[in-house]
Batch of 2 targets.
Target 1
Amino acid sequence: MMLKLAPPPCASAHPETGLNQLSVEGVTKSFDIDGRTVEVMGPLDLSLKKGEFGALIGPSGCGKSTLLRMIADIFPPTSGRITVGGVTPSVARLDHDIGFVFQDPTLLPWRSVIDNIRLPLEIVGKSGRLSGATPQELIDLVGLSGFEQARPAQLSGGMQQRAAIARALVLSPRLLLLDEPFGALDEIVRYRMNLELLRIRAEINTTSLMVTHSIQEAVFMSDRVFVLAARPGRIVDIVEVELERPRKLSQMNSAAFTDAVNRVRTSLFGEALGMFGDD
Amino acid sequence: MIDGRRALLPAGAMLAFLAAFQLAAAVNMLPATLASPLQIAKGVADSADLLWFHLEPTLLVAATGYLLAVAIAIAVGALVYVVKPLEPMVMTVGTVLDSIPMIAIAPILVIWMGLTLQMRLTITTIICLFPIFISVLQGLKSPPPTAEELFVSLAASPMQRFRLLGMPYALPYLFVGLKISAPLAILGALIAEWTGAERGLGVYLLSAMFGMRVVALWSGVFVACAISVSAYLLVCLFERLAVADAGHREVGS
């Protein structure tokens, strides 16, 4: 995995990206489908500062999940450069600096909740970092106290996703990637989980990037919303959300919230209807 | 283990069949080549020592060959799980190996290895191997794609991925193969003994056949069936312990 030609940029040598915990520059992705090369993404640029929460929103097929997987080094981009905490994604992954939360909680069904949260520690082994919160502290943090020994099948979807978030945080990653984490939940549970994630983030402040299909969720959760268009996937708008933290549901009635939602909506549907051109 | 009420009907049918068989014998309706249930029971009881003398090596070969097949299936399954490009090659070899009629290549193995324990183990292992291997391979493909991605993102080693993800997911599938192969192990041991051995249930059956000793032959057949069914039930018992404990109920076969 050390074949990448570009050396990891030194933070100070890159003043412009020096404070960025995540930097994506000119990234493209193409797949071979039946011998044809299909450009699915890019070139695409985005960056997140340390402690920032970004949301990716866009129509199906715009490559949101693909982008997240390239950042997590699950597969490489076709071209372009990604850095996480100043190093390549593969170095960051091998250092356990990236936490990933999938839409499906992806808990191992034969393990108890606490054993699922311990899984990354088991994989890292005894030599792994012990600086972060313990599994028990994380269970308390995500609100699963009393369910340590429960099997995933005994939990509701929302509770399973809480366990998945705790598991993603157990190695204290620099970057937390969330791929539509609440997409399978009903709206009531979803709002509650949004508030929960905001509360958890207020405690640990990990730089986070979340893919979502919900405009409200994107605006409510994040500092910046990256609006994507499809074929090829690219960013058509970046919306700064000027809402105070800690966020409260009541802020959803504020003008700032409504303005941001309207701007994201315009960027999304304007693009889909071809009313606003490509940029 | 078995729900009493559900077992009632099959058990009743079995008893009725045996009773009809015995009745037919009592009124002399059975041909001389068939033994009645009571004759078989008496035959088994009378020659229990001789049957055990012959059964012992058969059980040994069946059990050892079976365990060898399990070990090989899991080891090769792990290899294919870790090195995906190997799968077509391994599958081709496996399919060819499984398609060869064992009774046809047994003579080759006899000439190659002689009438030895190794030869009998080889035949038994080959017969048991494929069903177990196929089920392991199928099971190793059953983890959801996101679980595989999770292990990539956690930078797990290939062995960790196999041990913590692949094998636990494969467990219910593995038992399907183990149940198919349990009676096959007895079959393999018998076939191996038919090719020539000094002791073994297969030897006992052959000599009873050539001696036209009908009751002895039926006693041997009864014992062979009994150990086949017992082997199957034993695997079922292990399955209940392993899979139920592993929280796999929803995936179980």
Target 2
Amino acid sequence: MVEGESTCFYHPNKKAVLPCEACGRFVCALCDCELHGQHYCPACLEVGRKKGKIKSLENQRTLYDSIALSLTIFPLLIFYFTLITAPMALYIAIRYWNAPRSIIHRTKIRYVIAIVLAALQIIGWGVGGYLLISEITRNG
Amino acid sequence: MAEKDYQRLTWARLRRMGAFTAFAARSSLWLGKDHLLGVDSTGYAEEYKRFYFRDIQAVTLVATKRRMIWNWVLGVPLAGCVGAWGVDLVATQSMGTAGMIVGAVVTLLLALPLLINNLSGPSCACHLRTAVQSEMLPSLNRLRRARRVLNRIRPLIEAAQGRLSPEEIASSLANPTAPDAPPVIARFRAAPAAVPSRHYSGTAHLVLFWILLADVPLTALSVVYDSTWMDVVSVLLLLVTVACIIISLVKQHNTTLPAALKRLPWMVLGWTALMVVTALAYGMVLVINDPDAVDRNLSPLENPAVLAMTVIGTTVSAALGIVGLRLLRKFRASSLAPAPEPPPTGGPSAA
């Protein structure tokens, strides 16, 4: 190495060609991973892929909004299931409100509908339970 | 308003993942800034495949018989329905309100997809090829739509890769294995992966075809000798037929069985489904019109419409059985025949 030149973070014997755009570490030509004009070191690329920080490396997403909506609609066929599914849908809708949705453009309308329907179902169970208890206490 | 990352190129279409596609993913195609995005969605999760314009080597369109097959699948039941209602109308001289409603709904359910199938134009299979993969694009299954999409992405691919003159294309086709190609590309070009085929003698098919033939005497017997036991035997025969169809479809996968023989179980399945649906729909109409006279109206000797359905059903079953047995016999004979001897190489030729 020539004095005054930077060396690769991963290969101290090799000359660095540029810094990683995520962590700033100097990397050599071997460690330089180019992705759509941006340069990353292998570690940042792996972290970006695993944590979904680099959108173009994502190859799968779970659609929590669709799951929440299905949990509020399909159990209506057998209404008794909504006693369990409505709180589940409400939990999923709130818990994953900020989670990445589909990579293609999608609004939060499914979450909104799921929350409204789940809330209505829970209120319905509450009112039904209250009426049932008051009926029992009146007769008892 | 935020700019959209992707523009829709196609609506979602079913991705065929084997014989049964009920739970298959739906595939759609989206246009990104520098790539195509293929989205396979199950409804609750999505898988993404990116095809960068700079990596696309070829897009191939192959004409398929999909439209014709759907025309048969939808057209024959439609003709059957219309025929059945016609026979019923002629036989009874009047069709009740319930009969008209059921007839209209069934006809509409068959006629509408048939119309859409023909308005969509010729069908095709579209494959997109890069250096390391060849991916089918199920959403481009119609020639017109595929050409529209290709016309839209062609300038983008040319902008990313440059444009080849016809002479350069001819030159590269004449010399497909360029010496400087990376090993993976050279291997991909040299030896496309072949699907291994295994030998299968067609025993399940044989049973299926004999059962179809057995339907003829049984039906004839049930016409003249109407009893509950005959009904039970008929239902059992139907169940055995369905079981044999499923076993045949599973067994014939990746085998050396001829294509014509492989098509027959599908045809039997389609025909059986059609007969069952028609019989159920007609039975419903009879029940709604006159619940007390169902037994009498379902007898082929009493009702010309039922007689017509019985005769047509039995004839087609017998025809399928006979054709199947002939094809199977031919296939087995060719399998048993000794392989032709290779021509002698070198040495003096016989005078």
